[in-house]
């Protein structure tokens, strides 16, 4: 090496060491809180859905799949990353097996989480566009769950080709990032393209959701709705069968039909009868009311409900994007001239840590935006 190269490498190592201690403390605090909250929260979500039968829906099945991927990150990836940060600071080699396990858990958990968010976006659109295809939805959800884990596993296996260049893996093997030239091939060639592709799909389907919801916003929900009196315990089919009879009876003069009703209807009927003429039959005791919806209103009501579920899922997706955006930006910057800055390398390590925080945040979002989870 030339003297100039040695000087550059020495200055870089000194600058890197100065930033390293602060980075270790910050990473330990974030990973420690994520480890405790992630295990407790995601275990709670899985247990609640298992214990309550009414929560076993297609939409919640995707949330449980997301909770399982978060639980994997909390149980395996987060503690191994914490050990890597602490012992890597002292240049301890944790061994190839543990380092490979940490990388596999990180990539598999993140890919499964990312693909699950994409499937949630697709399913929310399908639920709004085709609100009554429940049987097809169950089959689709089962296939989406298998697809998210299978594709995540494939990407994790392919990622081992570039794993040795990631900052976390280098620290796990006790190797200091002491050269000005640093290239995160896994982030550039796998992580960023996959993340951007999934982001494009999420934006596409949520844009379509927005268009569909916007089309139904200005429509009146109760247009074409008729409220008919019905006896307690009568079914919807019975109300429909009597709809024509009642409408025909009410269209004729009340005196000819010989019917009287309580309230305003009874007053009108009494005034229409000739003086001294009594009713032919005692007034029917009809209680309650049934709202008969035509198919258009029924579909509109279902779409409005599904749009609310889409809005709740959107909070989860926005949180995921917010915590992942720093890593994507830093990964792209590290490939340019900023990659020679030791502070940027520490920021890159901390950005990796921040991606784990979603495992602890997601259960809190479920409880905040979902009334069923909130009550449980």
UniProtKB/TrEMBL annotation:
The keyword Ribosomal protein does not apply. InterPro entries: GPCR_Rhodpsn, GPCR_Rhodpsn_7TM. It is found in: Cell membrane. The chain crosses the membrane at residues 24-50, 143-163, 186-206, 314-338, 350-369. Keywords: Cell membrane, G-protein coupled receptor, Membrane, Receptor, Transducer, Transmembrane, Transmembrane helix. GO terms for cellular component: plasma membrane. Residues 41-366 form the G-protein coupled receptors family 1 profile domain. This is G-protein coupled receptors family 1 profile domain-containing protein. It comes from Latimeria chalumnae.
């Amino acid at each position: 090496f030339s003297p100039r190269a040695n000087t550059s490498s020495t200055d870089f190592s000194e600058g890197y060491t100065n930033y390293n201690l602060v980075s270790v403390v910050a990473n330990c605090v974030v990973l420690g809180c994520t480890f405790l909250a992630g295990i407790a929260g995601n275990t709670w979500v899985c247990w609640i859905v298992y214990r309550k039968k009414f929560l076993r829906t297609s939409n919640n099945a995707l949330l449980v799949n997301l909770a399982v991927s978060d639980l994997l990150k909390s149980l395996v990836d987060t503690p191994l990353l914490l050990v890597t940060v602490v012992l890597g600071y002292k240049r301890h080699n944790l061994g190839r097996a543990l380092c490979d396990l940490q990388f596999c858990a990180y990539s598999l958990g993140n890919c499964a989480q990312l693909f699950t968010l994409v499937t949630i976006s697709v399913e929310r659109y399908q639920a709004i566009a085709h609100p009554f295809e429940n049987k097809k939805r169950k089959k689709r959800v089962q296939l989406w769950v298998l697809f998210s884990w299978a594709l995540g596993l494939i990407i994790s296996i392919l990622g081992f080709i570039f794993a040795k260049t990631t900052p976390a893996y280098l620290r796990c093997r006790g190797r200091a990032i002491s050269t000005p030239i640093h290239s995160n091939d896994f982030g550039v060639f796998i992580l960023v393209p996959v993340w951007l592709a999934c982001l494009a799909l999420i934006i596409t389907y949520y844009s379509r959701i927005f268009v569909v919801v916007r089309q139904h916003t200005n429509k009146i929900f109760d247009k074409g709705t008729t409220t008919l009196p019905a006896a307690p315990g009568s079914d919807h089919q019975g109300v429909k069968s009597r709809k024509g009879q009642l409408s025909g009876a009410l269209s004729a003069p009340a005196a000819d039909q010989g019917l009287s009703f309580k309230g305003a209807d009874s007053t009108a009927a009494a005034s229409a009868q000739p003086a001294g003429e009594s009713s032919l039959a005692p007034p029917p005791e009809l209680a309650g009311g049934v709202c008969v919806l035509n198919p258009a209103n029924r579909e509109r009501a279902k779409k409005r409900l599904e749009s609310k579920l889409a809005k709740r899922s959107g909070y989860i997706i926005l949180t995921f994007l917010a915590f992942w955006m720093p890593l994507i930006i830093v990964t792209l910057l590290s490939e340019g001239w900023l990659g020679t800055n030791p502070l940027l390398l520490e920021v890159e390590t901390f950005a990796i840590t921040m991606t784990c925080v979603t495992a602890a945040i997601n259960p809190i979002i479920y409880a905040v935006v979902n009334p069923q989870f909130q009550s449980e």
